[in-house]
Amino acid sequence: MARVTVYIDGFNFYYGLRTKRRVAPAWAKAYWVNLVKFFEMFLREDQELIKVIYFTASPLNQDKSSRQSAFLNANKDMKYHKSKVILIRKEFKQIRELSDGRYSGS
Prior knowledge:
By secondary structure, the protein is an alpha/beta fold. The chain is 33% helix and 31% strand.
């Protein structure tokens, strides 16, 4: 059996769902997608999902950060696949352009 790991760019995954929701409002429920079940749907019979690695950054807005945490915790804490979801979180940085054209993060 082939072992599969899925890597997700959380920012693009979220905004892809958000764009889809604008076209078809029923997609709003996809914001609460079970990541393991979702990606298992794409596997062949000879493949096994070993882990889902979700890369993201915490939003600067506290309300958005709370909603994101609820989604991530719901996926991380599901008992039957707890060991399959790995979250890699970083922080957003404010970037500003310096007078010499370089950028600085604060």
